[in-house]
Design a protein that fits this description.
The protein has strands at residues 3-7, 10-12, 18-25, 32-39, 46-51, 58-60, 68-73, 78-83, 92-100, 107-109, 113-117. The protein is an all-beta fold. The strands form two sheets. Strands 2, 4, 5, 6, 9, 10 and 11 form a seven-stranded mixed beta sheet that branches. A four-stranded antiparallel beta sheet has the order 1-3-8-7, with no helix packed on it. The chain starts with a strand and ends with a strand. The relative contact order is 0.32.
């Protein structure tokens, strides 16, 4: 059974930090690119950060560049999102996604973890 379980969300003050984790099981984690997405109330889900299968390449939404860092540990089947200098506009539900690489079109989503940035 495929499972992606996010953790690490919570309430943090502006300027604070959080580290999200996404633990994967039920599929060959190292064969999948991974992404973190977020969805704020009334807004569409957006890509926050992406990392390749080996972790050698990453990319970020402009809104989080320089503040967020995505990483992965293929030995632990886990992807992370380190978030620093958090802003109220970072408030959202954060989801991790596993994306198969061509020709594998499979994709899996976690259930999300709430991040609230507020004083």
């Amino acid at each position: 059974q495929v499972q992606l379980e996010e953790s690490g969300g919570g309430l943090v003050q502006p300027g604070g930090s959080l580290r999200l984790s996404c633990a994967a099981s039920g599929f060959t984690f190292r064969n999948y690119a991974m992404g973190w997405y977020r969805q704020a109330p009334g807004k569409e889900r957006e890509l926050v950060a992406h990392i390749t299968r080996t972790g050698t390449s990453t990319n970020y939404a402009d809104s989080v560049k320089g503040r967020f860092t995505i990483s992965r540990d293929n030995a632990k089947n886990t992807v992370y999102l380190q978030m620093r200098s958090l802003k109220p506009e970072d408030t959202a539900v954060y989801y991790c996604k596993a994306q198969g690489v061509v020709p594998n079109s499979a994709q899996y989503w976690g259930q999300g973890t709430q991040v609230t940035v507020s004083s």
